[in-house]
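Data deposition worksheet. Section B asks for the primary sequence of the deposited chain exactly as it was used as input, without tags or linkers unless they were present during the calculation. Section C holds the resulting structure in token form. Section D is free text for depositor observations; keep each observation to a single sentence. Incomplete worksheets are returned to the depositor.
Section A, Depositor: J.P.
Section B:
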Amino acid sequence: MTVEQINTKDAIPHSDQIGTDRWRLSVDRNRVPNAFEFVVVASARAKQLLQGCVPKIEPSAKPARTAQREVLSGLVHRVEQTLAPPESPEA
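Section C:
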């Protein structure tokens, strides 16, 4: 999942929030086909950042924004986890 440009200098600030960390991210819907997956991955990454993980890009003031930018830039991906079936006790 990527966007054409993820640089915050190119982002458009909300008119009433210039000077804050609230920037719009431009997301190419063709490159982010599953918005639900994007939200799940970004929220999981934000939790990791809150727990002390090192950001892979220049951090924002808000961990959620940093996580979104990491996912959109392709630095963070979903990892499939398969759980082993529970072992049955031998009789």
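Section D:
The helical segments are 35-50, 63-72.
The chain has one domain: 8-72.
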